[in-house]
Specification:
One of its GO terms (molecular function) is dGTPase activity. This is HD superfamily phosphohydrolase. It comes from Halapricum desulfuricans. The protein has 407 residues and is α+β, with helices and mostly antiparallel strands. The chain has a domain of 193 residues: Hypothetical protein af1432 (Orthogonal Bundle), CATH 1.10.3210.10. Helices cover 51% and strands 10% of the residues. The chain contains 21 helices and ten strands. The strands form three sheets. Strands 3-4-7-8 form a four-stranded mixed sheet. Strands 6-9-5-10 form a four-stranded mixed sheet, with helices on both faces. A two-stranded antiparallel sheet has the order 1-2. A hairpin with a 3-residue loop joins strand 1 and strand 2. Helix 3 packs antiparallel against helix 4, helix 12 packs parallel to helix 20 and helix 15 crosses helix 16. The longest helix has 20 residues.
């Protein structure tokens, strides 16, 4: 057994298959992948990594297994999946995941190729575990896979508490101890026991409050857009392959960006927080419907059109169209009056949070400070944005915006 001091869960005891996996290269690599990617440019203390998060997920999975009375090989499979659930992440976590998927066809939870050979596969096999079944569990497949990846998974419980702790933002604080104790399996579904509607709501509320102030903070989004642009150029202009990119860590990618002429500007700007500024910051009602679901190629074409209209270098325009807002936690299941019900059917809070999430959605157009106004004017014309509302106090003069960021 190995005992590790953790900033969130105090002491974590690692044993069995997890102890043997701990020092594998696949797990140790996660020490060099930040949990929150570019959010550290907003909250300097948010330097926690996927490694410590994986330990936290393993710890909470262990506690859940104890409360559920699950033992033996089934339990070991869950423990292995919990510790390994993030080994598929590329550098900067989710920030360039869509880019990697476009080139490799793999998201971070599709890890059969990473677990099926090498040291990790040998360790799993030595413990009587099938690597493919562990990989299936990482993707949330099967009944017990819901513990690792699902609406009530221990992954979510750890990252909310950990992200709140390291950013200093209080909104992500949750009672993960109660959440773990109240988990039950009913007809193959992972649910919360009777009397826990508010417990489920707390998880939903924490996620909803963390989104605008942490996960979707405009500075983090600008840096994310610049990181994606630089990485796209890295793949197009150098010998870096998508598969190699997928296995890089944060430092590898930043060094690669700074070391190549085609991407050096992005690398320097990200290294020293010399970021683009908001030229447009528009709420959903101001954006044409066809733009909300525009594919990547269309977005790039629109960036080129905006640049041409503004007479600036195409690399100086980034169009950021987030996915439509969704809250997967609303489908969490709780027992009410002896019956299993979906949280969205039971909680009046859900509709309010869904409306708030839609209100917080923003389309962004980013550009260097010296051309921001020209780019903003051009973007409004090219994109057909309806920006009739007055500007507001939290957005600097000259930025085309419709509502303030926090209401």
């Amino acid at each position: 057994m190995k005992t590790i001091k953790d900033s969130v869960h105090d002491y974590i005891e690692v044993e069995g298959v997890a102890r043997d996996l701990l020092d594998s290269a696949a797990v140790q690599r996660l020490r060099h992948v930040k949990q929150l990617g570019t959010v550290t440019l907003v909250y300097p203390s948010a330097n926690h990594t996927r490694f410590e998060h994986s330990l936290g997920v393993y710890h909470l999975a262990n506690r859940a297994l104890d409360h559920l009375g699950i033992e033996g090989q089934q339990a070991e499979r869950v423990r292995a999946a919990a510790l390994l659930h993030d080994v598929g992440h590329g550098p900067y976590s989710h920030n360039i995941e869509e880019l990697i998927h476009r080139h490799t066809g793999k998201y971070h939870d599709e890890v059969h190729d990473l677990l099926g050979s090498g040291r990790v596969a040998r360790i799993l096999t030595e413990h009587g575990l099938n690597p493919d079944r562990v990989a299936d569990m990482v993707a949330g497949e099967g009944e017990l896979g819901q513990l690792v990846s699902g609406e009530l998974d221990v992954d979510r419980m750890d990252y909310l508490a950990r992200d709140a702790h390291h950013t200093g933002v209080p909104y992500g604080t949750i009672d993960h101890g109660r959440l773990v104790r109240e988990l039950r399996f009913v007809d193959g579904d992972l649910v919360l026991a009777e009397g826990n509607v508010q417990t489920a709501e707390s998880l939903l509320l924490a996620r909803a409050l963390m989104n605008p102030v942490v996960y979707a903070h405009h500075v983090a989004r600008i840096a994310k857009g610049m990181l994606r642009r630089g990485t796209e150029r890295l793949l197009a202009a150098t010998d870096v392959t998508p598969d190699r990119l997928r296995r890089m860590d944060d430092k590898d990618l930043l060094v690669a960006l700074r070391s190549n002429d085609a991407t050096a500007t992005y690398g320097e700007r990200l290294s020293y927080r010399d970021l683009y500024k908001r030229a447009v910051w528009a709420e959903m009602d101001a954006v044409p419907d066809e733009l909300l679901d525009a594919p990547h190629g269309t977005v790039r074409d629109l960036e080129d059109e905006i640049a041409a209209d503004a007479a600036v270098d195409p690399e100086h325009v980034i169009l950021d169209v987030p996915d439509r807002p969704e809250m997967t936690e609303t489908s969490s299941r709780v027992i009410v009056g002896g019956q299993v019900r979906r949280l969205e059917d039971q909680s009046t809070l859900v509709q309010a949070l869904q409306a708030a999430q839609r209100d917080q959605w923003r389309l962004g157009v980013y550009a260097p400070a010296d051309v921001r106004e020209r780019v903003g004017d051009a973007a409004v014309r090219v994109l057909g944005l309806d920006l009739e509302e007055p500007l507001v106090s939290d957005v600097r003069p000259g930025i085309h915006a419709t509502l303030d960021e926090f209401q």
